[in-house]
Structure of UPF0335 protein Bind_3227:
Amino acid sequence: MSEGNPGEASRGNGASRHGGSPHADIAETGVAAEELRQFVERVERLEEEKKALSDDIRDVYAEMKGRGFDVKVVRQIVRMRKQDHAERMEMEAILDLYMSALNM
């Protein structure tokens, strides 16, 4: 273990985990720091967009509920429409089998 930074030998330089480490570049130049700042800002913008979309979806469900639709059922339909047709048919067949076994 080196005298410098405790735990340095166990962590290594991170190059093998990250495909080449920009850590030295950040310390020596502002180029990698600028790139890092840009990545962070992109993620922050995407998180803002994701929250806005989530709010919009919540508003649509609230509107549906106000018009008398059963939101729980609509959410299930949305999930089902995302599934592959064959996958959905298989799941429904298993559901029918289990319900039959339980005399439902």
